Amino acid sequence: xxxxxxxxxxxxxxxxxxxxxxxxxxxxxxxxxxxxxxxxxxxxxxxxxxxxxxxxxxxxxxxxxxxxxxxxxxxxxxxxxxxxxxxxxxxxxxxxxxxxxxxxxxxxxxxxxxxxxxxxxxxxxxxxxxxxxxxxxxxxxxxxxxxxxxxxxxxxxxxxxxxxxxxxxxxxxxxxxxxxxxxxxxxxxxxxxxxxxxxxxxxxxxxxxxxxxxxxxxxxxxxxxxxxxxxxxxxxxxxxxxxxxxxxxxxxxxxxxxxxxxxxxxxxxxxxxxxxxxxxxxxxxxxxxxxxxxxxxxxxx
Amino acid sequence: xxxxxxxxxxxxxxxxxxxxxxxxxxxxxxxxxxxxxxxxxxxxxxxxxxxxxxxxxxxxxxxxxxxxxxxxxxxxxxxxxxxxxxxxxxxxxxxxxxxxxxxxxxxxxxxxxxxxxxxxxxxxxxxxxxxxxxxxxxxxxxxxxxxxxxxxxxxxxxxxxxxxxxxxxxxxxxxxxxxxxxxxxxxxxxxxxxxxxxxxxxxxxxxxxxxxxxxxxxxxxxxxxxxxxxxxxxxxxxxxxxxxxxxxxxxxxxxxxxxxxxxxxxxxxxxxxxxxxxxxxxxxxxxxxxxxxxxxxxxxx
Amino acid sequence: xxxxxxxxxxxxxxxxxxxxxxxxxxxxxxxxxxxxxxxxxxxxxxxxxxxxxxxxxxxxxxxxxxxxxxxxxxxxxxxxxxxxxxxxxxxxxxxxxxxxxxxxxxxxxxxxxxxxxxxxxxxxxxxxxxxxxxxxxxxxxxxxxxxxxxxxxxxxxxxxxxxxxxxxxxxxxxxxxxxxxxxxxxxxxxxxxxxxxxxxxxxxxxxxxxxxxxxxxxxxxxxxxxxxxxxxxxxxxxxxxxxxxxxxxxxxxxxxxxxxxxxxxxxxxxxxxxxxxxxxxxxxxxxxxxxxxxxxxxxxx
Amino acid sequence: xxxxxxxxxxxxxxxxxxxxxxxxxxxxxxxxxxxxxxxxxxxxxxxxxxxxxxxxxxxxxxxxxxxxxxxxxxxxxxxxxxxxxxxxxxxxxxxxxxxxxxxxxxxxxxxxxxxxxxxxxxxxxxxxxxxxxxxxxxxxxxxxxxxxxxxxxxxxxxxxxxxxxxxxxxxxxxxxxxxxxxxxxxxxxxxxxxxxxxxxxxxxxxxxxxxxxxxxxxxxxxxxxxxxxxxxxxxxxxxxxxxxxxxxxxxxxxxxxxxxxxxxxxxxxxxxxxxxxxxxxxxxxxxxxxxxxxxxxxxxx
Lengths: 301, 301, 301, 301
What we know:
The structure is a homotetramer. Helix content of chain A is 51%, strand content 13%.
């Protein structure tokens, strides 16, 4: 198929490249010149503006957005709107909040424009291994875009699916990331216990490696954890500072909205907040309270 | 009554003093000379050894131990054993693990010695306000010691009770402390949220004070929290470092042993561990994992 | 002062009554006739419509809303708007979300109408004991309403305060309730551990009572817990089903928005969701997973 | 090699069979006749007593125990002790507590008997896929047993390793299971959120299947979860009742003992306790407390 990729960052550039490798004709736009040049080197036809990008596509057009979730998606759609024609379709492959996606799809539909959401998992490994794609939208649109999904996925019939109406893709991806937070935290706690058991002087990369074959906890995340531990067994120089990027928060909010207890996913998010709270007011107050009622010594800083 | 206080630290000295004020005749022993001298100034007859202490008491003797939980209790009992006579009774008013108490009571009983456990709450405020006392042991022994409990408690008929067989007092006090951990953590988190809401520039000591009268969250711990916040509204100079002292851990272990979920008490303990884990291996590994699978930037240290 | 109470439910009726007892002239409106009649019996002049209520008040008018949070507040304000005149002030004493309060205050201000939020704690005990009031709004307005706060609070100078701009009162009350969730959960877990320790056959009402005097965990909530346990020591006939009413959820959302870890408050909310999830899909899936990988037996239902 | 398998339950029988398939000569003992007969059908020479089993082995003997953790291990060793000769070695491949293992190894060493612990993961799939083996013990002993590990593991050089001194194998396996609890809970919560989102009518087996290829959360546990969901998409007839088997509890206890926060692993255990607490006293007390302070309605049962 012929399509345009909007956003040639880490994810967009890799996905465009995988599409090119799969025989698709891909043009691309990114505000950064370096990103456009890098894409060009990988067979993606760079365009210097959205207008140019849209103009270069045959109708009905297919445009795939890989831009950061939030206002940039709305801005991009606002810029695209006057450039597109009825029948064109835009795919949001980023980590948008599913309610935003539903709102945007309704707006697009009012202009006879198609809108499909594609929750995309796989990180920087997706280029080589293929991406897991959770697709939401109208069946006819999803069918039209099928060749793209078949190329981006690990195999034509594996790792992707049409999961429901528009928004369902991003919803599913959101929960996927919530699970990811919980799994990561479980591994992190486990390896931390192993690391603190000085009596056994365990070799963490070795343990991780042993678990990769045959164990109940084997996983792709464990493979990556093994890489990380082999690369830097003591994690020297790495700050205990963990970012989060929205989808964990939304999963927690959604769980509460649905009255579904999700304590482990929630706590995994809280642990990330905690990692960044280096001068915890709560902990200071606890220390002050212990002193106030029990005379317990306060550690000074 | 006439009795001996073994251990004249913060808790023991105050309790001995409250007993003296209540008309009891109290002698005391502590390995520290300064502690003995301070006690003497408060009307407690200091003795320079356990032998001297025991020898000075009329039979049947009453000895109240206020020493740190653990081996020191066993050591003290081992030293007392050859000095005591059948019918004497020892009260453990400290924070001993209730299973240790049961073991010690059995040992004492085999020598015709009485053993009573008294979970004691009230901190440094107990001297003035009275202590809450959870007493375990044989009914006849508890009855014999009743005048002491009536003096130590806030009132003769308030704040103390015979809760069950030996061990039950320490068990009840252990759970009391588990609850205390949870309450403290709830306040600490709440004030931390208030403190971070810069938009409202809330005056935390004022808010705490407002809550002290009429609110659902009013409590003695809130009174102490108000003191702490008035004394140091920004908690300047206080390290976010929170100790724990055993009873929270035992409460968690007991909950699990009884198959009783106690997530909030447990998490309150975990938060204290977390406050002391300044270079968290788990957080470092999470950061390394995010980098390994998603190419997310690592913060360096 | 003269004022109108809008909403004569459990909270509104009690507060109106306390204001009457404090010498204020109070008229009241409630859509329910029974509520109006009950209020009349307590010295509140009942009005059969908002129009009649507003018409009966001297300008500048003071109206206190005690209605359920959410759309009813907006509806009430929409009905009041054409009836009010510049200089009138409406107080929202309910559990509104503080962002709604900020939005409503801006709307009211655009009509030269004052808007004050008053977070109100105290439950059904407030009538007798006074309420804890967290007031947000412009200083001049709060000053004008001062006699009301002084009457509603436990004492003229206790249990109430002007904590910040409009919204700050509801924000502070929201966090108050978050803390309340955590404290309640801590007590509930603790008593559950005590209840499961059959070996000691503890008398829970007795233990609660002992803790009420002198202990570190004494509190007004513990007093109420003692009442509940004395009334029904085995909690016979009470379903393990716990409602929540919005403020806990908002506290969690706010904590996450502010990047403040609040694990215990959050988990306390989750436990309430859990209490209502009687056929947990998560638990079923865990059982199914254990069977699928380990052949572990599934309990059938 | 020639060896004996003690315990021919689900795990022992499968492992013995895999050893036979790998060319080893395996005799076996189990108190159950049916288990012995089933083993015989798979090429394992059944023995009707431990004495017969030991007598049939060439010296120095190799005996692999796969019996339930706890007293049965001690009993088995007590029965073996008079039957063995210096130089014989016993492997504990079960889920023993590592401190028990250390104690037992010391006891065995005092009789010149070797003792090796082998944490074994893989469940009922290990027969076909191989087991992940975490081995603790003296290097020379581990080296002697190497052919067994190479056969049981998925490949001679994969999925097994000598991780440290005796006890280290069981310790590592214990933490492995703690991680497993956290991962399972994360998946269970995520799928529960998906299941409750009725708006999207998601097909859970489809979503699980999509995630198996290319996603960040792909794992062996997800493969098994997919099986379970395909087999029974609504989990009909499965009670929300989740057992635990010791290792999660020990992981929590160990984390606390090491001062390592492990909130997600801990909470995963608590959720299992919660799944079995169908008439929660804590929840009843929360409902009673809400009624006592706020007049909130109690749901009756």
